[in-house]
Every structure is written in C-alpha cells, then in structure tokens.
C-alpha cells in the first residue's frame, strides 16, 4: 500500500512504479469542476469517477482484487479507509469475473487512514481494504477509483 497527496506527486515519482505514477499524473491534470462522473478507459486503465456516501465502518464491506491495483483518489469530502494485510484471510463472497473478492466481519487486524481532498492510496492485491468509512458523521465524497491491471507493473 502507498499513501500520498497529489501535491507531492512529483516528489513521489522516484518511489512509484511508472504505471502508478502515470495514472496519478493523469488524474492530477483533470479539472474536476469539468470532469464528469462516469467510467472511462485509457491505456488499459479503468477510471471510475463517482459520488458516494460514507457509512460506519462496521456497515462497510472489505474487499480485494487479484488482477488489478486500486488507486483511490479523493476529489472532495473526507472518508476513512480501513486496511489490513491479506495474510490468511479468505474471501467469503467472490466475483472473479469482476475481480472483486469480499470479506465479511471484522478481524481485529484493521488499521484506519483518514483521506481528504487530494489524498490518494494505492492498494495492491495483498491489501484488504474497506473504503468509504464515515469519519464523525456520514458525508458525501467524490472520488476516482482507477483500476490498473497488475500486468502493467510487470510489463517492460
């Protein structure tokens, strides 16, 4: 897992894999007042821009992906994101055709991040994550989730 802020992107360039840096650079160039909600694909990366409501962490479902890396970027609002290493946890609800693997209940291994406008988190297949957890009270969040095929990290 990698966490950062879009204003520090150029300083992070040395530590980020090229494919991840390119996705974040693309996002950094968008004017969000003009950028519509919806889904688009560029260079095999799917970008999903949407509004969502946060909810108590206990009501949110943890997830992982096997074929894709999630880059989650907060445009506006504030959300908590719980994460934990996959270790021996086993998904209880699998949808391999959508590359979604869901986990029910809490394990006690969860850690929490606070994400605000401009923050991003990169989640790899070994990072179980629970996005859109409320901080204080429920609120609207606008965000982008980019799905980067894991093969883009290994192709040269």
Automatic annotation (TrEMBL):
It holds the Pfam family DUF386. PANTHER family: EVOLVED BETA-GALACTOSIDASE SUBUNIT BETA, EVOLVED BETA-GALACTOSIDASE SUBUNIT BETA-RELATED. This is YhcH/YjgK/YiaL family protein. It comes from Hafnia psychrotolerans.
């Amino acid at each position: 897992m990698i966490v950062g802020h879009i204003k520090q992107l150029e300083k992070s360039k040395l530590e980020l894999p090229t494919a991840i840096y390119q996705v974040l650079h693309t996002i950094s160039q968008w004017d969000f007042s003009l950028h519509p909600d919806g889904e688009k694909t560029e260079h095999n990366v799917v970008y999903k821009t949407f509004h969502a409501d946060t909810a108590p962490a206990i009501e949110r479902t943890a997830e992982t992906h096997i074929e894709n890396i999630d880059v989650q970027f907060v445009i506006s609002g504030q959300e908590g994101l719980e994460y934990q290493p996959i270790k021996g946890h086993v998904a209880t609800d699998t949808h391999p055709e959508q590359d979604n693997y869901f986990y029910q209940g809490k394990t006690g291994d969860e850690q929490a991040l606070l994400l605000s406008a401009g923050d991003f988190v990169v989640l790899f297949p070994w990072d179980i994550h629970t996005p859109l957890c409320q901080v204080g009270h429920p609120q609207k969040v606008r965000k982008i989730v980019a799905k980067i095929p894991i093969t883009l990290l290994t192709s040269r």
